Amino acid sequence: MKTQKLFTWTLCALAAAAFMSAGSALAQKRDEPVQTIPAPRNMDPAMVELGKKLFFDPRLSKSGFISCNSCHNLSMGGSDNLKTSIGHNWSQGPINSPTVLNSSLNLAQFWDGRAATLKEQAGGPIANPGEMAFTHELAIDTLKSIPGYVNEFKTVFKSDKLSIDEVTTAIAAFEETLVTPNSRFDRWLDGDDKALNKDELAGYKLFKDSGCVACHNGPNLGGTSFQKMGLVQPYKTANTAQGRQEVTGKDADRLNFKVPTLRNVELTYPYFHDGEAPTLTVAVDLMGKLQLGREYTKDENAKIVAFLKTLTGQQPQFALPMLPPSTDKTPAPRPFN
Predict the structure, then answer these.
(1) Short-list 91, 83, 81, 168, CA closest to 123
(2) Mean local confidence (pLDDT), 293-312
(3) Could you tell me where the beta strands, DSSP code E, fall in the chain?
(4) Extended beta strands in 181-336, E state
């Protein structure tokens, strides 16, 4: 019943967004290098609900304390607002946590693109010793010890099979619903002349004229290519991440990272793969110098930042899941070793 209510709410929300989009279509839709956020596709409400539970369940970690939501906090723009994330036993992560919001629109997952899909990405942190520090086998044993999960997996997948494949499929299904439509900029794209003020429009013009849209384009304003960090000037950082080179082994790919989405960027500070830019003002200044060879004035920077803040869309709305209880057979968490 709760699942049906969630699905009904989701359909109503999407219908409302579609209605607003259809209404604004009476105005002239703008031809720009950026497009509005598309609605999620092929939603199975039972699958999404199961994936939501798994996304929030810390029992998929060795400590019983870390969940997907720990680093991709849906109350904080789908990130954790830390330079680099905190993993098992308070270990320091090697890289900034990218937002999970609108991540289904990316060409690949992780900064270096080592996971082609959300499903492939979902299994990585569980078995990473510096993140959730479990193994896939132990995670599955934990889920199998919880009757509520066993029954739900059987209902959703129409099978008694419960493996990491089903787990990552469900998590990815939930993550595909985490889109943020109807930002003020989207409404402007759909023809609403009043959606942006003059400074925000001036900021978007600067954003385009400077060449930012060469990398930050499409519905996600990024996520569709890998680019070198420090194109015009070398980027100096103590962070050891080498980007795409760690996947391809090619020296030409050193410090090439997936271009991050600018959707909801006001919420996802600090910025860059190493989290070294604490504010949008600093990020815009450095991107101008490093990638474009341009030094923005204080006024130009402020206008670009004003534009970037119009990219905050409607955040995902749902009831927090009630997780099925553990049993006497459920392995005890080990948070301190």
Answers:
(1) 168
(2) 98
(3) 226-228, 256-258
(4) 226-228, 256-258
Structural domains of the chain sorted by starting position, each given as residue range(s) with its CATH number in brackets: 45-176 (1.10.760.10), 184-311 (1.10.760.10)
Q: Rounded to an integer, what distance in angstroms lies between the CA atom of residue 317 and that of residue 177?
A: 10
> Token pair 């609403």 is at which residue?
192
Of 35, 89, 94, 28, the C-alpha closest to 62 is 89
d(Cα 5, Cα 8) in Å, to the nearest integer? 5
pLDDT, tens only, 117-140: 999 999 999 999 999 999 999 999
Question: Could you please report the per-residue DSSP string of 62-93?
Answer: SSS---HHHHSBTTTTTB--SSS-B-GGGPBP
List pLDDT tens digits, range 195-226: 999 999 999 999 999 999 999 999 999 999 99
Closest Cα partner for 18 from 33, 37, 3? 37
CA 39 to each of CA 16, 67, 108: distance values in angstroms, whole numbers, following the listed order: 11, 26, 19
With vertex at residue 31, the alpha carbon angle to CA 29 and CA 34, rounded to the nearest 5 degrees, is 105
In sequence order, the β-bridge partners of residue 179 are none
Are 59 and 330 in contact by the 8 Å Cβ rule? The answer is yes
- Return the amino acid letter for 298: K
As annotated, the active-site residues are 131
C-alpha 197 chain-centroid distance: 28
